[in-house]
Amino acid sequence: MIEINLLPEGSRGKRAVRLALPGDYLKKSIFVLIALIVVTHILIQIFITVNALRLASSVRRLAAIRPQKQLVDKMKSEVQSYKAMRDLFSRAGAQRMPVAPALNLISDVLPEGVWLTGLSLSARAGELSGACVSAEGGEITQVGKLLNALKQEPALKIVFPELELSSVKRRKLGQSEIVEFVMSANKQAKNPKKK
For residue 104, what are the domain limits? Predict the structure, then answer.
């Protein structure tokens, strides 16, 4: 091949240097590269298979202990409910106020036209529900009188600390209007759990 370059010698570009690799060296390089790719692929497959076997083994072990875990969870919930009942009874014993005297005090402060329909006591809260009928239409006033009387009774503060009116509903019964109410008290406000 004849190459003609009319540029002066200083301006002529340099020729690229070509490395002439022997064919044997090139074949060995390609073989090593292919072997590395194949070995890497095989190692990745082995790693995936080992992890899949570990996962399957863990799932089998977890499935084997699932009934025992459910039994333990059930026992824990029962223990918690027993602890709550124990706390309730210990508080009731510590308060030294039986239910009958508390009901007597409540009945003593009931205004005219107000009657109770429910009393609920738990470890965390107390609830008193009732209804009121008044000939003069002052049902809400009568409920307010009951609430103030209960708040002023020191012996009832043990059973109903922080007593407040939580719900009031009016409804008609014939020509009379009835006001249904719910008073609630959060016992945790006054009696926080001791650790």
Answer: 97-189
